């Protein structure tokens, strides 16, 4: 009985200590940052109803006229402000992962960095957070893919899509969506599975571009040709 009591006491102490590790003040700050990051983007969701958009504008304290005037510029402004906050947090705590702020708050810094121009600077930190299980490896994979795409290099896991304005054979302007070129595309789904993704590259493409989208492999050369047509 004494041994059982000691075991329960030790377990309770462990759980309490685990809970105490969560920085509630930081968690609250990051939750607010993520609310802004995701909320502003939801405003541009084609499937959102006018009623939900109105409510979202109110929840985010956004003036409707200012939103209609600035549009994506408003998102860029808040992305910049959020990035400043995240950099201050990282300088003090390192990456705010699940040990420090719990889940899903450990997503907040990742989202802000993913939407910034500073992925190259923070990708090593993200990889380290993934290695320590502070964030899922799938998030590491998505950020690495975006970094490679931004560098005009082949991505690894097929997580990133792109839209480009080009011209058809008759010279008319045409906007096309495609999955950014993937290294060794024949084995991409094997790599995705090993990384922890529960969808194929084809399924992910439909998630990005719609259920009727048909995945096709592109090479970097084809992408550069698409861009050149619109010059």
UniProtKB/TrEMBL annotation:
Residues forming coiled coils? 16-77
Q: What keywords were assigned to this record?
A: Coiled coil
InterPro entries recorded for this chain? DUF6624
Protein name (Swiss-Prot/TrEMBL): Uncharacterized protein
């Amino acid at each position: 009985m004494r041994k059982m009591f000691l075991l329960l006491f030790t377990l309770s102490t462990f759980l309490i200590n685990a809970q105490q590790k969560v920085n509630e003040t930081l968690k609250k700050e990051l939750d607010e940052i993520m609310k802004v990051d995701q909320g502003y983007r939801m405003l541009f969701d084609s499937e959102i109803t006018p009623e939900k958009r109105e409510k979202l504008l109110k929840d985010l304290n956004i003036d409707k006229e200012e939103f209609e005037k600035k549009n994506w510029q408003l998102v860029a402004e808040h992305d910049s402000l959020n990035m400043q906050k995240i950099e201050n947090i990282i300088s003090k705590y390192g990456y705010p992962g699940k040990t420090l702020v719990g889940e899903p708050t450990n997503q907040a810094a990742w989202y802000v960095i993913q939407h910034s121009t500073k992925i190259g600077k923070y990708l090593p930190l993200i990889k380290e957070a993934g290695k320590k299980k502070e964030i899922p490896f799938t998030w590491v994979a998505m950020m690495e893919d975006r970094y490679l795409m931004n560098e005009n290099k082949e991505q690894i896991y097929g997580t990133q899509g792109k839209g480009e304005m080009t011209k058809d054979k008759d010279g008319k302007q045409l906007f096309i969506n495609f999955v950014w070129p993937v290294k060794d595309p024949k084995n991409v789904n094997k790599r995705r599975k090993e990384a922890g993704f529960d969808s194929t590259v084809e399924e992910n493409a439909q998630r990005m571009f719609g259920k009727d989208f048909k995945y096709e492999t592109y090479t970097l050369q084809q992408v550069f040709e698409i861009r050149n047509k619109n010059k």
